[in-house]
Amino acid sequence: MVNVVGKEDLGDQKQTEVMAVPATVIYFTCYDQLTALLRSKLGENESCIPIVAGIMARFGAVTVISPLELIRTKMQSKKFSSEELHQFVRKKVSEDGWTSLWRGWAPTVLRDVPFSAMYWYNYEVLKKWLCAKSGLHEPTFMINFTSGALSGSFAAVVTLPFDVVKTQKQTQLWIYESRKSLIPRLIKIAPACAIMISTYEFGKAFFQKQNARRQQY
């Protein structure tokens, strides 16, 4: 029994990693580069920068990762073996063409792009506000963590209907998804957003300091 549960947990973890790692790398890298570019063109204090950069970064990440998300969603709706999954992909491509792997792309964009725009805008606003309240010029780990959790929670609430539509489009599990409550979504997204952004900001600040020290010598 323990072995079965352990194998299932490892399988779910692998599915999550297949999606999370490339999606996060593409998403955060694009956002950072776009933000730097827009700030150089529009100025540091332009409020629309997080919105525009967030939309463009998420749009690109969704387009690249969409086939992997379709596969992961199928694996979550039914336990496929590797061979069954391979046959499913081959059948899908042979019958409907390569574009069928992007089934659910539009609902995913409708969910993730607004989420990204709201998340980054609120994150930047909250981060600046908390820094001002604390009398700090640079955000601490906890400021990033809190800003990420609050902005992620707000965006999750607003985009919940799009999440139901997206999964229904990919798996035809409308009834199952419609019964999902908001609380499990918040429990999942709020800490995930908080951990990812605070860890990312910490790592970015660390390497920036290391690069600055190297340039001094």
From TrEMBL:
Q: Which GO terms describe its biological process?
A: mitochondrial transmembrane transport
Q: Where in the cell is it found?
A: Mitochondrion inner membrane
Coarse class of the protein's main subcellular location: mitochondrion
The name of this protein is Mitochondrial glutathione transporter SLC25A39
Q: Which organism is it from?
A: Camelus dromedarius
PROSITE patterns to which the protein is assigned, alphabetical: SOLCAR
Lineage of this protein's species? Answer: Eukaryota, Metazoa, Chordata, Craniata, Vertebrata
- Family annotation (Pfam families): Mito_carr
What family does the database annotate?
Belongs to the mitochondrial carrier (TC 2.A.29) family.
Which Gene Ontology CC terms are recorded? mitochondrial inner membrane
Keywords, comma-separated and alphabetical: Membrane, Mitochondrion, Mitochondrion inner membrane, Repeat, Transmembrane, Transmembrane helix, Transport
**InterPro entries, per this entry?**
MCP_dom_sf, MCP_transmembrane, Mtm1-like
